[in-house]
Design goal:
The complex is a heterodimer of chains A (about 300) and B (about 190). Chain A is α+β, with helices and mostly antiparallel strands and about 300 residues long. Chain A folds into 3 domains: about 50 residues, no CATH class; about 110 residues, no CATH class; about 100 residues, Nuclear Transport Factor 2, Chain: A (Roll), CATH 3.10.450. Chain A has 11 helices and 10 strands. In chain A, a hairpin with a 4-residue loop joins strand 9 and strand 10. About 35% of the residues of chain A have low confidence. Chain B contains 9 helices and no strands. Chain B has 2 domains: about 100 residues, Rna Polymerase Sigma Factor, Chain: A, CATH 1.10.1740; about 60 residues, Winged helix-like DNA-binding domain superfamily/Winged helix DNA-binding domain (Arc Repressor Mutant, subunit A), CATH 1.10.10.10. Chain B is mostly helical and about 190 residues long. The C terminus of chain B is likely disordered. In chain B, helix 1 packs across helix 2. The chains are: A alpha+beta (about 300), B mainly alpha (about 190). At the A-B interface, helix 1, helix 3 and helix 4 of A face helix 2, helix 3, helix 7 and helix 9 of B.
Chain lengths: ~300, ~190
């Protein structure tokens, strides 16, 4: 069989021939049994391979691959996708992540060891620990001045979530709780924070400001605020987590301001879902209802 | 430009700007196809996983060298195939030394590996009989549905070379697998 015949068969199978050339090629096949036989055999093999199931990685293999890549690419200083929005929180996350990891290890050890090392206690401790992490940096400065509520993927799927908030004070391991309870940091663990207070706030306007430059949003809020208010952010998160408007797993939420809308006292949160753009919500702190949501 | 292609370029730009979420989105979009390509080339799950990891390491480490004139998927496939070639060469070198028992192809655990990855064992065995160059051509065109021009671009060879490799590869596979002419029912498909 000539090279041109081989090429003809390959072109026919690929479907890339113009209509006229294709008709001419098929006409040749009709009058050349050897060529036709080869074409049919090759087409059958091609179809068999095309229809073969595509092998996929298992969930464990995907997790292992990601972990290995993150480590080797030194991405572990940054938050996982969907856990924290990359721009707004990156500036403080890196130093905290290491502290949080170290504190979590210590907390885990504190919980496991008193149980005498029995298998049961270890399973419980490693699976369902709500960790309230507190740390002071080695240079004596206090840890971050902000905290974030993370809605864990694992909590939704495996009830193995940790809700992590950074506060000042001592590390406090808590007893295992149901996954839903773990999502909210314990109320009262965080001291009231100073936040911009905006009477008669316009959430749409705030959303526009946030969209224009998320990294400068704090400054914009501070300039817009007539005064500073104090807010128990842990209580806000507990309230938000219990509301019907709580985001799906993988999202994060951060309280950024407080104020009033039509006389109702609200907390303003930036919510960052894992699979879509951040949006703003105003949460009525008395009813724990989201009274206003502005999406991009 | 396809929406996937445009999305990939945007993700690469975001990754280079330090947006780590772009890393995860790129992984989610491409990891299974890269793994499938590597598995079909390597025919060993553990090796395919290693190669998949190396592919993404290369891609993310050299992301700044990605030229947007080419589709990201073409670049990704090129890195995948080249990384597979590298590992296959290393494997060949290793096999000049005596093989430990557990790597003996007659080891029944080898067959278990193949059945666990949903590759038809007969197809997989047939793929083993053809050279990596031929295998790369059928992996890209027949398994992955790439055009002849796309495969030529990925493999960095003339399109005529791809056609020639495809023809010869399919002929060998046809002989290995038996008669697949229309109307023929393969014994594996019999009830």
């Amino acid at each position: 069989m000539s090279n041109s015949d081989q090429e003809l068969i390959t072109d026919l199978i690929s479907g890339g021939l113009p209509p006229q050339e294709r008709e001419a090629a098929l006409a040749r096949l009709a009058h050349d049994p050897e060529l036709r036989s080869e074409y049919e055999a090759q087409l059958a093999v091609s179809s068999l391979l095309e229809d073969a199931p595509t092998p996929v990685m298992t969930a464990d293999e995907r997790t292992a691959l990601r972990a290995s890549l993150v480590r080797q690419l030194h991405l572990d200083d940054a938050p996982a996708a969907g856990a924290v929005a990359p721009t707004r929180w990156q500036r403080w996350w890196a130093p905290v992540a290491g502290l949080a990891a170290a504190a979590a290890v210590i907390v885990g050890a504190v919980i496991v060891l008193p149980g005498g090392g029995s298998d049961d206690s270890m399973d419980v401790a490693s699976a369902d620990v709500t960790t309230t992490i507190a740390a002071s940096q080695s240079d004596g400065r206090e840890s971050v001045d902000s905290d974030v509520l993370t809605f864990s993927d694992e909590a939704a799927e495996n009830t193995e979530a940790e809700a992590t908030t950074t506060t000042t004070g001592a590390a406090q391991p808590t007893t295992p709780t149901a996954a839903a309870e773990e999502l909210a940091p314990a109320a009262g663990d965080a001291s009231p924070r100073s936040l911009p207070y905006l009477p008669n706030l316009d959430l749409e306007e705030l959303a526009l400001e946030y969209a224009s430059d998320p990294q400068e949003f704090d400054d914009a809020l501070a300039k817009s605020a007539s005064e500073e208010g104090r807010l128990d952010t842990a209580a806000v998160y507990e309230c938000f987590e219990s509301s019907e408007s709580a985001p799906t797993a993988g999202a994060t939420a951060e309280v950024v301001a407080s104020g009033t809308i039509d006389g109702t006292e609200v907390a303003v949160l930036v919510v960052t879902p894992s699979d879509s753009e951040p949006y703003l919500v105003a949460l009525d702190m008395n009813s724990c209802l989201v009274v206003f949501t502005v999406r991009p | 430009m396809t929406s996937r292609s445009a999305e990939d370029r945007a993700l690469i730009r975001r990754y280079l700007e330090g947006d780590i979420s772009a890393f995860d989105e790129l992984m989610r979009a491409h990891q299974d196809r890269v793994f499938a390509t590597c598995l079909r080339m390597m025919r060993n799950r553990d090796e395919a996983l290693d190669v998949t990891q190396d592919v993404f390491l290369t891609v993310f480490r050299k992301a700044d060298r990605y030229k947007e004139q080419a589709a990201f998927s073409t670049w990704l496939y090129r890195v995948s195939i080249n990384t597979c070639y590298d590992h296959l060469r290393r494997r060949t070198r290793k096999r000049t030394e005596p093989m430990p028992d557990h790597l003996d192809p007659s080891d029944p655990r080898s067959a278990d590996e193949f059945s666990a990855v949903e590759l038809r064992p007969d197809v997989d065995a047939a793929l083993a009989t053809i050279s990596p160059d031929f295998r790369a051509a059928v992996v890209l065109v027949d398994f992955e549905g790439m055009s002849l021009d796309g495969a030529a671009d990925t493999l960095d060879v003339p399109v005529g070379t791809v056609k020639s490799r495809l023809f010869r590869a399919r002929k060998l596979l046809s002989q290995e697998l038996g008669n697949f002419a229309p109307g023929f029912e393969h014994p594996r498909d019999d009830p």
